[in-house]
Amino acid sequence: MQDLKQTLLKAYEFRHACKLFDESKKISDKDFEFVLETARLSPTSFGMEGVRLIVITNQELKAKLKPLCWNQNQIDSCSHLVVFKTKTKDLKPYSEWTKAKFAQRGLAQEAQDKYMQVYANFHKTLKSDDIYEWGTRQAYIMFSSMITSAALLGIDSCPIEGFEKENLEKTLEIDLSEEEISLVCTFGYRINPQPAKFRLSLDEMCEFKQ
Ligand SMILES: Cc1cc2nc3c(=O)[nH]c(=O)nc-3n(C[C@H](O)[C@H](O)[C@H](O)COP(=O)(O)O)c2cc1C
Asked: Where are the chain's structural domains?
């Protein structure tokens, strides 16, 4: 157990927002499949699985996307560029997708209808009823799993919120009636040493009520 704790903690310490990757080093298919598997197994609210990933290794495409991501060097130096999409249409209450997801549990129709009612009521309580924002939160959970599992394998990463959403969607020919881009994340191997980490102490971060 102690070993496991140390291994995991080391991975968290190893992970940092890598600003430039070594272009000569590529992540193996096997290792990236492991990283993707941890995204697949990540939880989603109501189990709705409303996130899809575009995994880009094509150098030409990466170079084309770089100016749309604030010209950040991670975009074209990384080995794997992942674009997360939120399935806005599917996530709507009473969509064919949500019906299928509730049916998947093998419950009686009446129970499925009840679940759907709860789901629809929940969506009414969302601030500004924004299905994109809610779906996008699920993408963040996935990406968090991915950067940690990557770090366990010695793979570096950098999340990218600095992108022009509309232009990226246009270039990647995203059908906006179905889905929208939620997040970008880059993976590869560092070329520069890791900078110092700045974090609050546990006492600053937490309020303990005992
Ligand atoms: C959701 C999210 C989006 C981010 N977007 C960017 C980005 O566009 N470009 C960048 O260089 N770093 C980005 N970062 C990295 C953060 O700046 C970085 O994680 C933070 O400064 C802490 O540093 P560390 O990750 O090295 O410990 C992002 C981080 C998160 C969590």
From this structure: 7-86+141-192
Residue type, 164: E
The pair of structure tokens assigned to 86 is 């939120």
Ligand 1 centroid, distance to 136 Cα (angstroms): 17
Q: Is the CB of 77 under 6 A from ligand 1?
A: no
CATH topology of domain 7-86+141-192: NADH Oxidase (3.40.109)
Residue at token pair 């991975």: 11
Atom 18 of ligand 1 has which residue's CA nearest to it?
Answer: 17
Kindly tell me the burial class for residue 81, based on how many C-beta atoms sit within 10 Å of its own C-beta (0-12, 13-18, 19 or more). buried
- Residue-wise pLDDT tens digits, 174-186: 999 999 999 999 9
pLDDT band at 125 (very low <50, low <70, confident <90, very high): confident
For a ligand 1 pocket test, name from 158, 168, 181 the mutation site with the most ligand atoms within 8 angstroms of its C-beta: 158
